[in-house]
Amino acid sequence: MKIACLLLDGFEDMEALGTTAILRRAGIKVDFVSVDGVPYVKGVYNTFVKPDIMMTNFDHNAYDGLFIPGGRAAFLLRENKKVLQLIKDFHACGKYLMAICAGPTVLAFAGVMEGKKYISFPGTEAEMRGAVKIEKQTVSDGKIITAIGAGAVYEFALEIVRNTLGDAKASELAKNIFYREFEQRK
């Protein structure tokens, strides 16, 4: 399993890095992609990330999923035509789309959320373009996985693991990191 995490300056640090750390712990390969080609991408809380790949060299065929963290960067990503086309391509190929906080609005702007269940940061509902809001920390609808915000990072990452690697792997990982709430919410 290999996932690309799209980054622009202003990404939400905990959402991008916390989720990625848990996914990597599960054995999922996650590459950071610099959308605008900068050698270091700056999070909203001043964390700098050296990307693994630049968008100009990105081959979506090499990935099983696309991850969009929230933060101010999400509002820029949803205006980027290349990003929106990339989301459409992933969706058309039946690949995973994962987004947290304001990230689900990027999926909506790409036109892949019509009739899909989701959760996103409060106040973004009008931008979700026909999606169906579910009041939970994380929501899965087919291969689209969304979460409300930074407070849901553990549950979001474990939901991704559950969807991609199975219940047993997600439960094992939750136990290994002492995240007891995961088992209680299943």
Structure description:
The chain is α/β, with parallel strands linked by helices and 186 residues long. The protein contains seven helices and eleven strands. The chain has a seven-stranded mixed β-sheet with strand order 5-2-1-6-7-11-10, sandwiched between helices. Helix 1 (13-25) runs parallel beside helix 5. The mean pLDDT is 96.
Keywords:
alpha/beta; 21% strand; 186 residues; 11 strands; single chain; Rossmann fold
Unreliable stretches (pLDDT < 50, length at least 5) are none
Binned, the helix content reads: 25-40%
Total count of domains: 1
Structural class: alpha/beta
CATH-level-4 superfamily name: Class I glutamine amidotransferase (GATase) domain
Summary?
The chain has helices spanning 13-25, 72-77, 81-92, 103-109, 153-165, 167-176, 181-185, and strands at 2-7, 29-34, 41-42, 48-49, 53-54, 65-68, 96-100, 117-118, 132-133, 138-141, 144-147. With 186 residues, the protein is an alpha/beta fold.
Summarize the SSE layout with pairings.
Layout (H helix, E strand, L loop, with lengths): L1 E6 L5 H13 L3 E6 L6 E2 L5 E2 L3 E2 L10 E4 L3 H6 L3 H12 L3 E5 L2 H7 L7 E2 L13 E2 L4 E4 L2 E4 L5 H13 L1 H10 L4 H5 L1
Parallel strand pairs: 1-2, 1-6, 2-5, 6-7, 7-11, 8-9
Antiparallel strand pairs: 3-4, 10-11
